[in-house]
Q: What sequence folds into this?
């Protein structure tokens, strides 16, 4: 069985007044910077707060009432600019404007540093968001990308290849396409031997299930991606059976290691390390959260679960 990753919402949602548990860094999430004396100028003008910058989101909370807070995922950000704002704590001053979209609703946030002459608010948030934007291949399923060079996988900065499997058929067409698997610590990549640009990159983060299933080509490796990535179902034929079983065992093992500590690929180093989050948070009542399970889907239908339309499982 594939280990189930907790649904990643931290970089995908805008949430208000979250619980202490939701404010904590999830596995793989890293606190990059902590900025004190930051005002949420639009939502809580005149209220001094703290801004936490992680590799997935920014969190602001009031220093006086920590339950007054917000979490802004980088994937929701449409635009970041600096403009003049009217702060109750600073008067007319330069502020950070962040325009976001979450669940078809737009939100604008304005953050002002109460400390005069400090550029960290602008430089850190903008730079970390840029690092997030340029590392999506770690987190998103990618079709027909620039993945292969001279028949070798173009490695990501934190990536290591653990196995290369030759003679892997992609079953997305009637006759299949012969290609090669690269199994790494963050993803699985397949490419056609006759055409390097005919490929797919599947991060472990977006894998919902890995199974050996029967098909019209015989037993095949079937990978179902998460609804977040489109709900694709991809079939691969590997002969002989022992080789197929070894590949599935290795993928499951690496997926388990990844699930324990995901690599999100956002790299940004501060000269001065921030304090641990445990030292910065104030105890508050934890909300009750009920998570409903997703509906199971047929694993070999080649269906896009999000739209209900067939994506034809073509790479």
A:
């Amino acid at each position: 069985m594939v280990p189930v990753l907790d649904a990643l919402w931290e970089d995908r949602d805008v949430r208000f007044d979250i619980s202490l548990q939701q404010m904590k860094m999830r596995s793989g999430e890293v606190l990059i910077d902590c900025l004190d004396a930051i005002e949420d100028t639009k939502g809580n003008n005149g209220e001094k707060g703290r801004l936490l910058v992680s590799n997935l989101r920014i969190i602001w909370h009031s220093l006086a009432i920590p339950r007054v807070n917000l979490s802004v995922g980088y994937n929701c950000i449409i635009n970041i600019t600096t403009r003049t704002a009217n702060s109750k704590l600073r008067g007319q001053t330069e502020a950070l404007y962040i325009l976001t979209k979450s669940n078809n609703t737009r939100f604008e946030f304005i953050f002002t540093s109460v400390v005069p002459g400090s550029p960290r608010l602008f430089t850190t948030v903008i730079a970390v968001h840029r690092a997030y934007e340029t590392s999506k291949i770690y987190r998103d399923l990618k079709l027909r990308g620039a993945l292969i060079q001279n028949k070798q996988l173009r490695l990501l900065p934190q990536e290591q290849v653990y196995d290369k499997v030759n003679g892997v058929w992609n079953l997305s067409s009637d006759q299949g396409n012969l290609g090669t698997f690269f199994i790494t610590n963050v993803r699985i990549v397949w490419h056609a031997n006759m055409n390097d640009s005919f490929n797919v990159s599947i991060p472990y983060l977006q894998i919902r299930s890995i199974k050996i299933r029967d098909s019209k080509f015989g037993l095949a490796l079937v990978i179902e991606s998460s609804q977040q990535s489109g709900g694709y179902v991809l079939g691969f034929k590997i002969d002989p059976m022992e080789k197929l079983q070894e590949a599935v065992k290795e993928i499951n093992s690496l997926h388990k290691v990844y699930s324990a500590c995901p690599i999100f690929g956002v790299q940004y180093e501060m000269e001065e390390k921030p304090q641990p989050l445990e030292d910065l948070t104030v105890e508050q009542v934890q909300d009750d959260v009920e998570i409903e399970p997703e509906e199971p889907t047929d694993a070999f239908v080649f269906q896009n679960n999000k739209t209900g339309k067939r994506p034809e499982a073509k790479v």
